[in-house]
Amino acid sequence: MKRKIRMGMIGGGPGAFIGEVHRIAARMGGQIDLVAGVFGRDPKKSREIADSLFLCPDRCYADYASMVAGELGLPVNERIDFVCICTPNHLHFPVSKAFLEAGFHVLCEKPVAMSSAEALALQKIIESKGLLFCLMHNYSGYPMIQQARQAIADGMLGRLRKINVEYSLGWLAAPNAGKQASWRVDPKQAGISGCMADIGTHAQHLIEHVTGLKILQISADLSTFVEGRALDDDGSVMMRLSDGARGVIFASEVATGEENNFILKIYGDKAALEWRQQTPEELIIRSNDAPMQILRRGWPGTGEAAAKFSRLPAGHPEGFIEAFANIYDAFVEAIRSGKPGDYPGIEEGVSEMRFLEAVVANSNGNEKWTNI
Ligand SMILES: NC(=O)c1ccc[n+]([C@@H]2O[C@H](COP(=O)([O-])OP(=O)(O)OC[C@H]3O[C@@H](n4cnc5c(N)ncnc54)[C@H](O)[C@@H]3O)[C@@H](O)[C@H]2O)c1
Fold first, then answer.
1. Distance of CA 319 to CAs 143, 251, 283, 288, Å?
2. Distance from the CA of 244 to the CA of which of 74, 217, 219, 289 falls in 20 to 30 A?
């Protein structure tokens, strides 16, 4: 397939957060053209974005159902190859389903759906249609996260014992944090959880991605600190993982003053590692036999896994958007080859929904540990 891959987009209207990140990241590898979309519920605002992107007016659709029909009505060599879904959570399942059933590949924001039943239904469609599905767990696209995963697979840490992950944000500390905040605490649009669905799922995914372990049981305590919210804005989860490892997730959106303070610490019986998203180019390695070592992206000795996900020489910082672009690159490669590649997919989606359901059930009930 010697041509650019054609992308459509649902969401990402004026003032939206993550849609623009997707658009920049999709362009970064030079292999994707955005050719169609529905950039919001309001057709006028949607058209504003389409015009600013020089899209053909006929391909700025009124809603996602018209887009499916419109694209199917085009010759195959003009249709989108895949759609990117970056709407609030409640639309992830119906929009994914509609495009998959029509034969289009899908790249969707997390969380994949509103329930594990929906995630399993998507899995069935993906498998029966032989289509590709990418779930945007972008933190796995960071070079030093890939290096951490490789270090663990190579046995550098020995047997894993303890995994501590913190994701702290302060943006929901006050009651009126804006329109992006309001849908995140509305069960109809966000689902069964607020904070844990929004950022706890990133922690859950990164833990399983980097360590290769599965979270088997959890004990959770979700809180809603700001009065009037129907969903959690903070939570802690203790975890029992495969191979006897233990862990804790601390996620909060009311951690006053915090930015996106996402920290991963993994302790094995030989060594330990630490990664911080606010200094993403570094991976800290600790042991009891040598001084702390800091591996930095872009150096020959840092490792192949990081090098494969890097674009620039050391010292020219790469960050959040490049990590998204790395996931896009892997997905484009899969579309070209027709085979799934190394990016988060529907299995990770099923797993995140089971995790969320267990966390909510455990926090609401009296059970000490809940199986996932
Ligand atoms: N991977 C990440 O790091 C990350 C970061 C932020 C958000 N997200 C996820 O991305 C999604 C969007 O979050 P956001 O912060 O960008 O939200 P947002 O509110 O800023 O943007 C949502 C966009 O979807 C549009 N929309 C709503 N209904 C629509 C419809 N029926 N058809 C077409 N467009 C519609 C809105 O008009 C808006 O433009 C959420 O699922 C969120 O969990 C992921």
1. 9, 21, 14, 31
2. 289
